[in-house]
Automatic annotation (TrEMBL):
It comes from Alexandrium catenella (Red tide dinoflagellate). Residues 13-27, 36-46 have a biased composition (Low complexity). Residues 13-46 are annotated as: Disordered. This is Uncharacterized protein.
Length: 117
């Protein structure tokens, strides 16, 4: 039976590394919370793994790694969109402040011109 691989270990499983090798263990020795998800299940030790089963396990790990990469890309895209919206809002505010400042400069220049006459 095949099961899902968590994102942190998908790369290691696809490369044939032992589980958990893709991300270092935290200082407290406990696995990160995301590693509580089920890991790939290989056939029992007494059973021989056929080349097809090995290929299926590797394909599952590669597919999970691709899904994790897509999830990270989507998260990055959403973060970038949020940053763009925030930057646009700041730019609008700066333009409004600049416009108001130029209006004040114009009024001050007009008053100064009237006083010099």
């Amino acid at each position: 039976a095949l099961s899902l691989v968590v994102c942190e270990t998908a790369g290691a499983a696809a490369k044939g590394a032992p589980e958990g090798a893709a991300s270092p263990a935290p200082a407290n020795g406990q696995p990160p919370p995301t590693q509580a998800l089920p890991q790939p299940v290989a056939p029992a030790a007494q059973e021989e793994v056929t080349p097809l089963e090995a290929l299926a396990l590797k394909a599952d790990a590669v597919a999970q790694e691709a899904k994790c990469a897509m999830d990270r890309a989507l998260e990055a895209q959403q973060d970038a969109a949020s940053r763009v919206r925030e930057a646009s809002r700041r730019l609008r505010e700066a333009r409004q402040e600049s416009s108001l400042a130029w209006e004040r400069v114009g009024r001050a220049a007009g008053r100064a011109a009237l006083q010099t006459q």
